[in-house]
């Protein structure tokens, strides 16, 4: 199995590696810290006073807010970087018009067969072993098959598949 990979500049690749290693490091730290806390019997509050709990909760919420802002800034920066990087590519250009003769040549059929194919709503296309179109089945016209190599139509009545 092959994956399609494009050649990447050294800086984005280094940035991806550093971000991945940082994320794995943070995950490993949190996992080890959590396991150690569980093994030591969990956190034990020394006092159960309302102001102490409020300030501890406020401190935790402040850290969550700081982390959310940092992660949001990182994601926004990454999105803007990708937007600037992809701005030089024109991915939404309209494909040039193609004539019926060119389309027929790309399918390997004559223009008469192409016109019949364009009139159908449902087609079944059969390919030969070399990948070229070998036969067309016109469903609406009672399973009429056209051998595109000879452009001869044959009317075959096939049994529907049993469910």
TrEMBL record:
A Pfam family that the UniProt record links to this protein: PgaD
Top-level lineage group: Bacteria
InterPro entries assigned to the protein according to its UniProt record, in alphabetical order: PGA_PgaD
Transmembrane segment boundaries: 12-32, 61-81
Protein keywords: Membrane, Transmembrane, Transmembrane helix
NCBIfam families recorded: PGA_PgaD (TIGR03940)
Protein name: Poly-beta-1,6-N-acetyl-D-glucosamine biosynthesis protein PgaD
Gene that encodes it: pgaD
């Amino acid at each position: 199995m092959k994956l399609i990979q494009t050649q990447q500049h050294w800086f984005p690749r280094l940035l991806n590696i550093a971000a991945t290693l940082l994320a794995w490091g943070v995950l490993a730290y949190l996992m080890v810290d959590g396991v150690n806390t569980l093994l030591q019997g969990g956190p034990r509050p020394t006092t159960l006073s309302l102001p102490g709990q409020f300030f501890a909760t406020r401190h935790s919420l402040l850290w969550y807010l700081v982390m959310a802002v940092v992660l949001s800034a990182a994601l926004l920066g990454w999105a803007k970087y990708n937007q600037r990087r992809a701005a030089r590519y024109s991915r939404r250009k309209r494909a040039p018009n193609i004539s019926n003769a060119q389309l027929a040549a790309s399918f390997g059929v004559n223009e008469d067969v192409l016109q019949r194919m364009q009139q159908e709503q449902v087609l079944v296309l059969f390919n030969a072993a070399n990948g070229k179109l070998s036969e067309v089945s016109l469903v609406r016209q009672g399973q009429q098959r056209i051998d595109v190599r000879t452009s001869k139509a044959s009317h075959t009545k096939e049994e529907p598949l049993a469910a």
